[in-house]
Amino acid sequence: MFVRSGDTAVDLDGYRIIVPCISVGNVAQLAVDLLINTLKLPRVGYLDDDSLLPLVGNDAFDHTGLSGHMHTAGEVYANSECKTAVVQLRTPIAKGRKLSFCNNLISWIKSVKFTEVILLTSSYSHERKDVQIRGEPYRFLLTPEARDLYTPLTMDQGWNLLEPRNEDEGSASSVGPDGVISESQLFLPGSGLAKILYSQCCSEHVRLIMFVAFCSQGDNIHDAIAVAAKINSWLKLLPKENDRLWCVPSSWSLMYGGPSPNALF
Which Pfam families match (predicted)? Predict the structure, then answer.
């Protein structure tokens, strides 16, 4: 699934990996854009999988300085100093291929021996329960292998655990104090591959931390900045003096298209 970029040997053993879901408002992908561009992460390879719809485009970031630097549907960036790899997905998964893609992704993650997977996703804000409307619109979830992070994330970072929802009754269910809930209680409409990946990581004993942002479709730049800031506050990816200085990628200048033609006025 992974194809290295160029002739440079890449050893990601011992790294953590951040993976975005294609979800509501593209918040996870935008947050990953911020991390890649601000940290000036070099591309180390591609995700070659026939489940990803094909795409090719020009350089999306400011820091490469390479005219005609092409991007594809799935790419991997990495930083050896903070031992962090970042995946960027730019196209949806082909219809009927979600399970296949998740299987291939998890097989690659296990083969590389990443220390943990940080899954970023978003969910429709209008589907929140009453208890989720109060406070910040962010939640997290852990697989059993990551339950040791429950106390640090709740006490040190102030994160809130995703409330489980019993699908049969449409009401809240109790959950143990370890950040782990069953798939049947996981309700995240609009979150893309999040539910499948969480379930498979539980089955495959993969250490996964899922971070969820509740939002709506629209201008989601501020949501993306908030998610990137939350992840940075936990992982300390940026120096403390620069933790508020996010570098917006050049590709964002075309997020709403070009200027209106003068002929309209």
Answer: PAC2 (PF09754)
Query: pTM of the full predicted structure?
Result: 0.89
Q: Which residues pair with 75 in a beta bridge?
A: 46, 88
What residues make up the domain containing 130? 11-40+94-240
Report the CATH number at residue 132.
Answer: 3.40.50.10900
Q: Is residue 59 domain-resident?
A: no
Residues 6+ apart with CB under 8 A from 224: 27, 30, 31, 33, 34
Contacts of 11 (CB under 8 A, 6+ apart): none
- Contact, 211 vs 230, CB < 8 A? yes
> Which has the closest alpha carbon to 210: 115, 149, 139, 159?
139
Confirm whether 261 is domain-assigned.
Answer: no
**Number of CB atoms found within 10 A of residue 79's CB:** 18
Task: Kindly give the confidence (pLDDT) of every residue in the chain, 265 residues in length, as a single tens digit, with 9 standing for 90 and above.
Answer: 888 887 777 889 999 999 999 999 999 999 999 999 999 999 999 999 999 999 988 888 865 555 567 889 999 999 999 999 999 999 999 999 999 999 999 999 999 999 999 999 999 999 888 888 888 899 999 999 999 999 999 999 999 999 887 644 444 444 555 667 777 788 899 999 999 999 999 999 999 999 999 999 988 999 999 999 999 999 999 876 555 688 888 788 777 777 777 887 7
The DSSP 8-state label assigned to residue 52 in this structure reads B
Taking the C-alpha atoms of residue 30 and residue 28, their distance in angstroms, rounded to an integer, is: 5
In a domain, residue 55? The reply is: no
The number of folded domains in the chain is 1
Residue 66 is which amino acid?
L
